[in-house]
Amino acid sequence: DAGVIQSPRHEVTEMGQEVTLRCKPISGHDYLFWYRQTMMRGLELLIYFNNNVPIDDSGMPEDRFSAKMPNASFSTLKIQPSEPRDSAVYFCASSLYAVVGQDTGELFFGEGSRLTVL
Amino acid sequence: AQSVTQLGSHVSVSEGALVLLRCNYSSSVPPYLFWYVQYPNQGLQLLLKYTSAATLVKGINGFEAEFKKSETSFHLTKPSAHMSDAAEYFCAVSGARRALTFGSGTRLQVQP
After folding, report:
1. How many CA atoms lie within 13 A of A92 on its CB side?
2. Are A13 and A113 in contact (CB under 8 A)?
3. Nearest residue to A79 via CA among A69, A66, A68, A92
4. Chain A positions in Cβ-Cβ contact with residue B43 (cut-off 8 Å)
5. Residue A1: pLDDT above 80?
6. Which of A49, A77, B49, B82 is the one with CA 20 to 30 A from A13?
């Protein structure tokens, strides 16, 4: 399997611009997560989906952030307008919970999208 | 609610020495516990996981961790450090919800 695929790996943009980060989860996984990593705050959960439906978006910082999962093989995280404080590495992860009794919660991570907002 | 606390943001050991990275957890339900490793400019990779089957869990690259309910701890150890072990290590807990809550991370340095 190719693993979780994220794009772009690096993005540099100017304040006020729209940013779209993309994620392709592992085929067959039914959960998808977006995390943000910064030096100050560590790894923070932004939002997660189950079977393409958002379950918990309480970690989304503010209305400038939005996430969608139009199908089982694709998700986007959008920031509009972007601000310098959004600079971080954004990780997508996926997992499989389909088998009762084998629910171990292991997440498989992509390599991340490093966002710099000037 | 669930949380993890990693004691020590930086740990330095000599090559060949014991590695001990500390993690304490808090969870309102029986937890699943994990250790992940992150190498520079990469994503997180699972080292090992505790799922209540056995309290001593063995992972990849010679790492192991012991779940101690009485101490609410899940410390990571390796008998002999290798230069390639230099990385950042994260402890994580999964409770009632599917998402993992991560600790703040411990950066391991291995001195030659």
Report:
1. 29
2. no
3. A66
4. 4, 91, 109-112
5. no
6. A49
